[in-house]
Amino acid sequence: MSLLCPLGLVEAVAPVEPVVMSRRSVQSLLEPLARAVPETWESVLVGEWSTEGERYGLGKFVFRSSRTRFKLGIFAGIHGDEPAGVLALCDLVRELEARPGWVSDYELHVYPLLNPTGYEDGTRESRSGRDLNREFWRGSLEPEVALMEGEILREKFDGYVALHSDDTSDGVYGFVRGATLTEHLLRPALAAAERALPVNRGSLIDGFHAVEGLIRSGYPGILGAPPGSKPQPFEIVLESPALAPLGMQRDALVNGVLEILRHYPQMMAFGGEL
Ligand SMILES: [Zn+2]
Fold this sequence. Notes:
By secondary structure, this protein is α/β, with parallel strands linked by helices.
């Protein structure tokens, strides 16, 4: 197990948990991660707030290439009961450290845990009871959403990749929004994810029409680009099957994100038209 993914965290999110469990510890998740983050990455506190007298924060890890051409935001943990994406972003930073050529075109902003109270409680919603991934660009008063909306407006990403897990799906799948090239990024990402877990090839996934694991519609209010952004960024939501072994979900999600990072500069070299 790498330094980036401390054993304490893995134990905290093991699928077999005692009936009476203490809260998952955000500190045990993020502190070792921040300490172990490679020197080429910067650890940044996006903002803080108080919930029921306790202080919480949103953090990110930033990598800046000396010749940045593209700026991406990569997000996980907005649903507190979906640990695979959180862990996958631990793995991703380590994998990218070993592949400097893959990030030479990028400024990457990696947000490993957007819903720390939900993560502590093991719930999809934050402690306020809200599904934070239905609150974006609707005047939400939730502190996590307000912080991230400000962050997104400041950073103006060229692309968004959000990691999720779905306990009703027996395979990997994804949602595409935004730029027309997006589905040409998701297809190879799903193929790469399939090295770890099968793709869900059903025609109906999560209530949406799907083709080969790709869904072109989605829920309103999800984390992503502000409405009307020009030029349109690409927006991908990658979903792992939540009931599959955690290690395989992590591998599937990391493989998918790496493939997106590998393909995007190639596609843009052709003017984004494939
Ligand atoms: Zn989710």
